[in-house]
Design goal:
Length: about 240
């Protein structure tokens, strides 16, 4: 059976559109996939800052990654510092000689994942605290870890951001408790959405994919039709121009 140019073009269009929709599906799934690479969607548009340490402790230093995904605590106080977890349990013990992690704590379990469902405070409600089981994790008095109190940990944007993503918003205030030589210390901070541009990299990729597919579809339709006209003896547009 002979295939006409129009049928060939239609078949090619169907194939190309299928490929286009597959590409769009991959792009649409790019945000959730970011969780597997250690980066949250829109991470560049969040800013987490420490606003106060009360009371101030000489030799106790904090460094917070801009979007709040991790915090580093360095203990040069010469004392033992205990970082309290989401339920108030002992989570980290930082001494002048190193760091121990309580692997029996809820915080140790949750901080192994960048994305979790619900706020840490909610997840910790009703949780039964177990006796500490300390694991030595560093030979220096400095440690970096994920702390879900300080960053946005869901793939969906906060409601206030989803309603108006192009302008800055305060997402929430956060706090972390610890003890330095058995004296309570509170670290407070704020997570802010700084505002996203009108066109993100993902949007540009979608536009380029659609534009490329449109050009290709036009070409696939035009070439077989032009060939058919020439076989039928009808002059092509370029031939008419040359004749004049």
């Amino acid at each position: 059976m002979t295939t006409t140019p129009r049928k060939s073009a239609a078949a090619l269009v169907v194939i190309l559109l299928g490929a286009l929709f597959s590409a769009l599906a991959v792009l649409a799934a790019a945000s959730p996939a970011a969780a597997h690479t250690g980066t949250l969607p829109d991470a560049n548009y969040y800013s987490s800052t420490i606003t106060s340490v009360t009371p101030a402790v000489s030799g106790l230093d904090f460094s917070l990654l801009k979007n709040g995904e991790s915090i580093t605590l360095t203990n040069h106080t010469g004392q033992t510092v205990i970082v309290l977890g989401y339920t108030g349990e002992d989570y980290l013990r930082i001494t002048p000689t190193g760091v121990d992690e309580n692997v029996n704590s809820l915080s140790s379990f949750l901080n192994g994942s960048l994305i979790i469902s619900g706020l840490p405070q909610e997840l910790g409600q009703g949780a039964q605290q177990k006796p500490p089981q300390w694991k030595h994790v560093s030979n220096t008095p400095s440690y970096t870890w994920h702390d879900h109190r300080m960053h946005w940990m869901a793939q969906q944007r906060p409601p206030v951001v989803a309603a108006d993503p192009r302008h800055a918003h305060k997402v929430f205030d956060w706090s972390m408790s610890l003890t330095a030589d058995d004296r309570p210390v509170t670290v407070r901070g704020t997570l802010t959405w700084v505002g996203a541009p009108a066109f993100t990299g993902r949007t540009v990729a979608l536009v380029v994919a659609i534009g490329t597919a449109s050009i290709a579809v036009a070409g696939l339709i035009g070439v077989p039709i032009l060939a058919a006209r020439r076989r039928a003896g009808a002059p092509a547009h370029d031939d008419l121009i040359s004749a004049h």
